[in-house]
Amino acid sequence: MQPDQNEKLMGYIAYIIFFVPLLAGSKSSFVKYHANQGLVLLIASIALQFVLSFVVFVPIIGLLLQLLRIAPLILWIIGIINVSKGEMKPLPIIGGITLIS
Question: I want to staple 34 with a disulfide (CB 3.0 to 4.6 A). Which of 5, 11, 12, 44 is the partner?
């Protein structure tokens, strides 16, 4: 079943501010799924940035690992594309984690 425009809008918002669709009281499984993906992406992004802030001091390898800083942006774009297609596809690497049921 394809999500309606309101559900898609809430799906987009879920990747920007994950808790807004939850506060809006959406009962849609589509919206909850993307709110969960947005929350997991936020937590993973913070953890990645924290780890990379220490790795930067490692010569050469630290500089190469800094390229991982764009990974959350790439995952965010994938999530937005999934919403626009009306799909409930998990994000690569972190998509299997469920925090909101």
Answer: 11
Provide the residue range defining the domain that includes 21: 5-85
Q: What is the largest CA-CA distance in the chain?
A: 51
CA-based nearest residue to 18, from 68, 66, 83: 83
Q: Tell me, yes or no, whether 75 lies in a domain.
A: yes
Residue 80: inside a domain: yes
pLDDT, tens digit, 9 for 90 and up, residues 23-62: 887 789 999 999 999 999 999 999 999 998 888 788 888 8
pLDDT at 2: 87
| Paired tokens of 38 | 């947005």
Cβ-based neighbours of 81, under 8 Å, separated by 6 or more: none
